[in-house]
Amino acid sequence: MGETSMPTGGTPIPMLVLASASPRRVDLLNQIGFAPDLVAPADIDETPLKDETPARHAERLAVEKARKVAIQHPGCFVLGADTVVACGNRILPKAEDPATAEKCLKLLSGRRHRVFGGVALVGPDGKPALRRVQSVVVFKRLDAREIDWYLASGEWHGKAGGYAIQGLAARFVREIIGSYSNIVGLPLFETTQLLVGRGVRLGA
Ligand SMILES: Cc1cn([C@H]2C[C@H](O)[C@@H](COP(=O)(O)OP(=O)(O)OP(=O)(O)O)O2)c(=O)[nH]c1=O
């Protein structure tokens, strides 16, 4: 279990498992040449703890996702990630209905907010390594028509903060500071550092 291949004369390469149900994360990981051998969603409670900061929340959930899947796949490298949209110290929800998305968009309108990404890699030894990334996003002021138009698109569904920068919401983004891929769901530079740092080979 947990071994993907045995190169001639070498040691087995542990499998790379992505602990995610997000198709975006699979695409992002593929983009940098680390095709996961397996994708396995981690079913965890994503409720913020009392007084938990957005940054800490993203880190904790990334580790919990990776750990949960690592228990089911011992001996593998397991990558987990979490994306948190924060307005000040307030953690915005993942929008599952239009009313929630509308509240988020009204809050983000005309302001700058932060997007925190946590990425955790649990190694075959069971130990997690963690990176945290922060991006800043500045939205233009949104009028009621723009908000209604965006809500009708449905693109907000399942997205932290009620928008997806990789889609129509790009029209609202005046500026970003920091990692773009972090906002979409997986900070690719830091993910590469984690994977390479733990000895996961390209295309493992
Ligand atoms: C802000 C923003 C978030 N998102 C997405 C990324 C994440 O999929 C989602 C935040 O929820 P997460 O809980 O980070 O991830 P998830 O539930 O979609 O998937 P997983 O199984 O890995 O836990 O919001 C975008 O796609 N674009 C954006 O611009």
TrEMBL record:
It is an enzyme of class 3 (hydrolase). One of its GO terms (biological process) is nucleotide metabolic process. It holds the Pfam family Maf. The keyword Thylakoid does not apply. Keywords: Cytoplasm, Hydrolase, Nucleotide metabolism. It comes from the Bacteria. One of its GO terms (cellular component) is cytoplasm. The active site is at D82 (proton acceptor). The keyword Hydrolase applies. The record marks R24, T83, Q166 as: Important for substrate specificity. It catalyses: dTTP + H2O = dTMP + diphosphate + H(+); UTP + H2O = UMP + diphosphate + H(+). Gene3D superfamilies: 3.90.950.10. GO terms for molecular function: nucleoside triphosphate diphosphatase activity. It is found in: Cytoplasm. Its EC number is 3.6.1.9. Its cofactor is a divalent metal cation. Nucleoside triphosphate pyrophosphatase that hydrolyzes dTTP and UTP. May have a dual role in cell division arrest and in preventing the incorporation of modified nucleotides into cellular nucleic acids. Belongs to the Maf family. YhdE subfamily. This is dTTP/UTP pyrophosphatase. It comes from Aliidongia dinghuensis.
